[in-house]
Amino acid sequence: MSATRYTYLGPVGTFTEAALHTLPEAATRELVPLASVQAALDAVRAGEAAGAFVPIENSVEGAVTATADELATGAPLMIYREVLLPISFALLVRPGTELADVKRVTSHPVAQPQVRRWLGANLPDAVWEAAASNADGARLVQEGQSDGAFAGEFAAPLYGLEPLVKDIADAQNATTRFVLVGRPGRVASPTGADKTSMVVWLGDNHPGALLELLQEFAVRGVNLMRIESRPTGHGLGNYCFSIDCEGHLTERRVGETLMGLRRICPQIRFLGSYPRADERGSTPRQPGTSDEDFDRAADWLARCLDGRGEG
Ligand SMILES: O=C(O)C(=O)Cc1ccccc1
């Protein structure tokens, strides 16, 4: 086991690698590119690496399903950090290629919806093929298996390619979220601007089941940041919910929410509390939801037992 090794979605030149380098500790780690999210996570599960850095969510396409599903149902892992990276693509080609020569293009599937309109307008007849990552697409172009790769401009020199078109992004401000994942361990102390992730399974299918789940957050003033349904794989209509909320597990309102979910749901997986990467502060606290409010209520309850519950 290497305590200093981080795996990531490779090969070299992915956006994932660029995002990883924004973490200060990356400078002192052995960074190992692997061919898939699964391989990166499995290396952590096997104890061959201390962390895996992988994409999890995109502001245009939504969940990176390979990551979301692995975290929900694979052997347990936890999220320790997140990084947000604005993404714009360059069309990377072999030197000398002109736009008219580009018949086949490639990218990671999550990138395709971000360049779809550009493709329709500029290369309507080109065939798009999936690559294991955007940098792997660049490698496919280098090897002649494709003519153009949508990837970071920074990947071009790594694969002997040139950016034929730069700044391709159907949606302005497209952002991808990446996470550093490790084996389950101690949750880092709260920073004051934290996020908590979990996966929750609903029990029997009855009217209001999802509402009951959401109420656990609402009554404690916990703001949801993301909720996404994912099929459980056990037949049509069977879903679990991948949820991010504001706050840290050590906050009473968050802890009590998770306990509430634990009581009403057949299964819940805590995925970590970690510093949120966006600079926006938490939404204003609802009255009656601070740690002090919870403590005062607990004190009052104890006093009730002694007949001192008034006031
Ligand atoms: O990191 C990469 O290059 C990837 O292939 C994952 C990805 C896909 C789409 C946008 C950002 C990152």
Automatic annotation (TrEMBL):
Residues 5-183 form the Prephenate dehydratase domain. Residues 198-275 form the ACT domain. Pfam families: ACT, PDT. Its EC number is 4.2.1.51. The keyword Amino-acid biosynthesis applies. GO terms for molecular function: prephenate dehydratase activity. It catalyses: prephenate + H(+) = 3-phenylpyruvate + CO2 + H2O. The record marks T176 as: Essential for prephenate dehydratase activity. Keywords: Amino-acid biosynthesis, Aromatic amino acid biosynthesis, Lyase, Phenylalanine biosynthesis. GO terms for cellular component: cytoplasm. It comes from the Bacteria. Residues 275-296 are annotated as: Disordered. Pathway: Amino-acid biosynthesis; L-phenylalanine biosynthesis; phenylpyruvate from prephenate: step 1/1. One of its GO terms (biological process) is L-phenylalanine biosynthetic process. This is Prephenate dehydratase.
